[in-house]
């Protein structure tokens, strides 16, 4: 018995030593991770609504979608964001995202300071989040093929999976060969009248997989005639012999994951944009910045039984409230709050919503609570409360 104990103690001792040795080898990150440094222009912080905090939320949302795709396609690597963001002192709209990607690529160019920070943080990939674009605020992204630089409009971190698409380019994924100029192509999957695509492709609703010579069983979600959500499984071809990005992506991912630790020193360019590291959680909203989502007023008229509320919302909608509920809180407080109205919020645009609460007995002194929530699973938060006169 005692012998066994000594043996186990030794085993634990060696396991700890071995683990520490493995940790020492991988330094800052796990070996199967690709780190991304998110930089943004000051103009973006002014436009996005909520400032750096929203940019961080958008980036996290993009990373979540990206990892869903990397896992589904068994790339073998996970994407991780560097915790801090880089704010680039650039207060104008970016006019041409292609030219900006070319500039971002230059180590000694305007984004020289970003390259310095990239080296300090040992980031494998840099993603510049911008406002503007060739056609103002067209939501798009571009990325180097088999490269480590990408440029994304702040509004693309949504259901379209444009961020994983651009990241796919960095790992060598290409559009379908028939897709010459970035438009729709013939490799689209039809389901109940709707067109779908892999994230490597253009057009249609995204299926979170990269193009590969593989067929999978995919569960489609759709709304039936009565607007109820249903699920249906169907076999889906993700690509073919000529449209098979995943094997190449696995090889490129291995190279990309080693980029950050092996960057050469960066010389200082005094003419470059100034830039600073930002911790989004305690970064104040810049002066003149927009709110991500804010209820401006909430009223109820007992005579007409009409409620109305006005809200401001920025262009970004991935993480802002999409639905609202109005709860009636009885003056006596004896009964539980009950829902007296609910509906959807116009995604990303300011609006005024009105409705009638005629089927509920609402007395003077009762309270009406306006609650909003961001997604189906999120619990609604109280954003405004009024006492009925
Ligand atoms: Zn593309």
Quickly list its features.
seven-stranded mixed sheet; Collagenase (Catalytic Domain); single chain; 23% helix; 7 helices; Immunoglobulin-like; alpha/beta; 2 domains; four-stranded antiparallel sheet; binds zinc ion; 389 residues
Characterization of the model:
The chain has 389 residues and is of the alpha/beta class. It has two domains: 28-173 and 245-282, Collagenase (Catalytic Domain), CATH 3.40.390; 293-387, Immunoglobulin-like (Sandwich), CATH 2.60.40. The protein has helices spanning 2-26, 42-47, 52-72, 97-105, 112-121, 162-170, 246-256, and strands spanning 33-41, 78-81, 85-88, 125-130, 141-143, 149-153, 189-191, 194-198, 205-207, 215-223, 229-237, 275-278, 293-301, 306-313, 323-329, 338-344, 351-356, 367-373, 381-387. The strands form five sheets. Strands 1, 2, 3, 4, 5, 6 and 12 form a seven-stranded mixed sheet that branches. Strand 13 (293-301) and strand 14 form a beta hairpin. Helix 3 (52-72) crosses helix 6 (162-170). The longest helix is centred in the first third of the chain and has 25 residues, at 2-26. Zinc ion binds at residues 165, 169, 175. Residues 165, 169, 175 line the site of zinc ion.
Quickly give the structural class: alpha/beta
Give the ordered list of helices and strands. Answer: HEHHEEHHEEEHEEEEEHEEEEEEEE
Q: What is the name of the CATH topology of the largest domain?
A: Collagenase (Catalytic Domain)
**What is the CATH C level class of the largest domain, in words?**
Alpha Beta
Radius of gyration: 25 Å
Count of individual beta strands: 19
Q: Identify every distinct bound molecule in the structure, by name, code or SMILES.
A: zinc ion
Number of helices: 7
| Sheet having the most strands | 7 strands, mixed
Number of domains: 2
CATH architecture of the largest domain: 3-Layer(aba) Sandwich
Mean pLDDT across the residues is 88
Name the beta content range.
25-35%
Q: Can you tell me the residue ranges where pLDDT is under 50 for at least 5 consecutive residues? A: 20-26
Overall morphology: globular
């Amino acid at each position: 018995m005692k012998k066994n104990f000594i043996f186990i103690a030794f085993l634990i001792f060696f396991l700890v030593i071995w683990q520490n040795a493995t940790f020492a080898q991988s330094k800052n990150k796990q070996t199967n991770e690709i780190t991304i440094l998110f930089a943004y222009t000051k103009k973006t912080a002014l436009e996005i609504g909520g400032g750096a905090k929203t940019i961080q939320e958008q980036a996290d949302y993009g990373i979540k979608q990206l990892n869903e795709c990397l896992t589904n396609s068994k790339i073998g690597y996970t994407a991780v964001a560097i915790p801090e963001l880089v704010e680039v002192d650039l207060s104008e709209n970016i006019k041409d995202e292609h030219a900006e990607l070319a500039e971002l690529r230059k180590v000694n160019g305007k984004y020289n300071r970003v390259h310095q920070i990239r080296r300090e943080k040992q980031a494998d990939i840099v993603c510049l989040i911008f406002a503007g674009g060739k056609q103002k605020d067209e939501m798009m992204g571009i990325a180097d093929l088999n490269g480590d630089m990408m440029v994304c409009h702040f509004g693309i971190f949504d259901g379209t999976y444009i961020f994983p698409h651009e990241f796919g380019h960095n790992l060598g994924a290409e559009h379908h060969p028939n897709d010459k100029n970035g438009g729709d192509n013939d490799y689209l999957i039809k389901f109940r009248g709707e067109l779908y695509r892999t994230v490597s492709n253009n057009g249609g609703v995204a299926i979170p997989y990269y193009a590969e010579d593989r067929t999978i069983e995919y569960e489609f979600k759709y709304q039936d005639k009565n607007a109820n959500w249903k699920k249906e499984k169907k076999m889906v071809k993700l690509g073919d012999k000529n449209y098979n990005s995943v094997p190449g992506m696995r090889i490129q991912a291995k190279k990309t994951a080693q980029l950050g630790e092996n960057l050469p020193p960066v010389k200082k360019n005094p003419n470059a944009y100034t830039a600073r590291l930002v911790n989004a959680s305690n970064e104040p909203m810049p002066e003149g910045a927009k709110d991500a989502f804010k209820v401006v007023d909430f009223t109820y008229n007992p005579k007409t039984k009409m409620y109305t509320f006005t809200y401001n919302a920025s262009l970004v909608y991935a993480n802002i409230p999409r639905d609202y509920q109005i709860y009636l809180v009885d003056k006596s407080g004896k009964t539980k709050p009950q829902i007296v109205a609910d509906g959807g919020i116009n995604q990303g645009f300011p609006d005024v919503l009105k409705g009638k609460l005629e089927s509920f007995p609402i007395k003077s002194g009762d309270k009406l609570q306006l609650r909003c929530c961001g997604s189906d699973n999120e619990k609604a938060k109280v954003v405004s409360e009024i006492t009925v006169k």
